[in-house]
Amino acid sequence: MDAQLGEIILLSLRVSATALFFSSLCGIPAGILLGLNRFPGKRLAIILIYTGMGFPPVVIGLLVYFLLSQQSPLSALPFLPDLFTPEAMILAQIILAFPLVAGFTMTAVQAVDPALRLQVMALGATRAQAALAVLRQAKNGVIAAIVAGFGGIISEVGAVMMVGGNIEGRTRVLTTAIILETRQGNFQTALALGLVLLGIAFVINALLFVLQERWQDA
Amino acid sequence: MKILYHIDQLRQIYQGRTVLDVTELSIRQGEILAVVGPSGAGKSTLLRLLAFLEPPIEGKIVFKDHEFTSLTSEMPLALRRRVTLVFQRPLLINTSVRANVAYGLRLRGERDHSSRVEQALREVGMEKMANVRSRTLSGGEIQRTALARAIVLQPEVLLLDEPTANLDPYNVRLIEDLIQRLNLQHGMTIVLVTHNIFQARRLAHRTALLLDGKLVEVAETGRFFENPTDSRTRAFIQGEWIC
What are the chain B neighbours of A137 within 8 Å (beta carbons)? Predict the structure, then answer.
């Protein structure tokens, strides 16, 4: 069990960390774009982001399942992963975390005094430099956005169960393992896995909190 | 004197309300032009346009043979960087005074700037506070830091929006002396927006009155105050309610 547990923990971390990385890579710029600019369709984009923030993971799982299944006309696309692989789980988690990261980043950026951007521009900043200055002021909110994204995916089970299939040694992660052990009546194991999951969440959130504090003092 | 800015049929409208409607105005190189007027007259809007921070709805601003109109998405960066605007309520970055003053230079990619920063800090009397964090500064110190942050860039044009509003007499004197020094020693063109007509009289070569977004009168400062041509200018100088 120890070796299996290590494998499950590592896969959980790999899937969620990779998904968080890509959702932050897309979500932070999207949040800045929505927070700082006016463009046609912005209101609709914000409503979609808000809707995505509350999307049930199982529905995302269903959509990704359909997208990657043989019935989907898009499944032949070379960059799409196969079903029941860690990559499929990562894709589902990116879709889950993206609106959380983008939405919270947008709110954080909007909370920065709008005069700051203008004043930085008045000092000769380019648009990109001005956006970066706003982002620096909003950094606590941006870290909170990343924390929210992480919280949304490390603990979700519906999407990874659907697209990963909970295959032992291949796609079993902590949340799906907890469900399996509970169904089999192995409550002690399930509880232990739950504690491990909580511990991981605590350590990662503590690290992000320390990072937030350091940035605040910088 | 050479004309630095020429404004022609300039209009700015926010949410359907015309906030600025200036038919014509020229700003001469090396002068101090004071723009006075009551609150809401469009003075700050004029400064933002002169700093190329927002395009006008109608009309144009000609600066160094470059036209800035509603069709100009952005002025060339090199031109925009010749002009610096100090806002009425400056925002500083939550770091040291020195880092704040160096900020604009860093944006320009200039790395070896310590001597210029120290010089700018001395100019505003903040050299002893260089390492103090900006959030602990008083209103006067914030204003002086913002001025240092602007003058360290050695702009051709310095736009000042109420630079001494709510400051004590010591800080007012210090900033006024600096404005005169920058103009006399460096030939810097300065556009000064102020409520304080006495300040305009002390500092400016020419003074302009803005009222409801329209330019009422522009004249040499002596004539503006002693022999204004418009009755509204006379009323404003005498502190009467004008509308």
Answer: 93-94
